[in-house]
What we know:
The protein is an alpha/beta fold. It folds into two domains: 12-138 and 310-361, Rossmann fold; 164-307 and 368-391, 3-Layer(aba) Sandwich (Rossmann fold). The protein contains eight helices and 19 strands. The protein has a five-stranded mixed beta sheet, with helices on both faces. Helix 1 (25-39) packs parallel to helix 7 (312-330). It is elongated. Bound molecules: 6-O-phosphono-beta-D-fructofuranose. Residues 19-20, 138-140, 194-196, 248, 276-277, 306 line the site of 6-O-phosphono-beta-D-fructofuranose. The site of 6-O-phosphono-beta-D-fructofuranose (F6P) has 12 residues, from strand 14.
Amino acid sequence: MQLRDKIYKGKTIGILSGGGDTPAINSSIEKIRNRALILGFKVYGIRQGWKGLLGEGDIVDLSNQPYNGVYGGTALFSSRTNPFPTTGNPENRIPQIIANLKRYKIDVLITIGGDDTNGSAKRLYEQEGVPVIGFPKTIDNDLKTKTLHTYKGKDIEAVLCPGFPSAAFRVSEMTRHLRSTNESHRRVMVLEVMGRDAGWLTGSAVFGGAELALIPEYEMTKERKEHFFETVKQRYHEKKNLIIAVSEGVRWWDDASGQLSMVYASSETDEYGHKRFGGVSGIIASEISNRLNIPARSQVSGYYPRSGFCCEYDRQLTSALADRVLDLLIRQDYGKMPVMNKIFPVEQLEEYNTTSVDMGSIGNQPLQKIYFDEKSFVFTDAYIDFLANILGLPYVPSFGYAFKKVNPDEL
Length: 411
Ligand code: F6P
């Protein structure tokens, strides 16, 4: 066979990215694109997720173009457009999508997304027979990838989604930086971390020095809140500063209404029915100040962990998973999503350590119980072992001076 007779010459793949961006989406696009080009595919980018397949379509040609996968975010843009009808939006957009796939002659669709985007892709594959390959992505790290973590001889079903490593690195770094101001003022710092309904990302603050944590998997009922305040008091008095990492989606007992509540940044709901979280750290910090008379501040990490360059771990991870996409494309094995079969340090992120999962099994994976000690509000050694594969060991600097106090009576 001559080089010009590439096996997929004349065929086209379309790549889209949906949902919240991550620092690893451009890397995923670049690496999938490069491999598909080698097979002979033409590669199109569908802009703004599913939205780019509505109306006239918004499609760009990515073949033989420069593409910087190190730069974070997604050059294809993103949206939370849901192709399927919902109560808020009863319009059935599937016929438009099918028509545009035909019109632009897209043979295989590759959807880079979390549970929402890949969940829709799965339905498109199952109900309409569209050849689809999913590709994982989310800083929340809550998309079931069935990635095993072996800890003390036991296999734990963990998760590894591109984008999480870069975001985890940034959360740990931000926590580490916050330590100096927090130590200087002898405060409690309540650091709020994204992650929707899962505490995976919040745990990365431990690698920069967060000592306590609250995560959505464990509701802060009236009783647990009392116990938490006692724990904060004790821990603060040991060394007069404390960082508490708090997931944005934590359920917190509201004394005024006498019920558990979640704190939202706005009342808007996206097309998948999600409201935007934000602000729980402020409530917790002010309750710590008022109830315990300890100086406390809140800091929302917000979009910072989601922003900026793709880290080396994510570069290798997206490479290994894109190699598996190549394999799926060659075998025309659709309705699948590439995943790492185990959690590995960066040097073992290679295709032979990947596998693919059926998109039918896609769903959310909260933090496993073994990773969090709900009684003492700390991430366990098992979690540290899991995340150390990605971040290395926790690094927690501090002033560390042991100045001798001057006693005027001894002068
Ligand atoms: O799902 C990713 C995520 O970053 C969540 O952690 C967060 O709750 C949400 O997206 C924020 O969404 P938006 O970008 O729409 O504000």
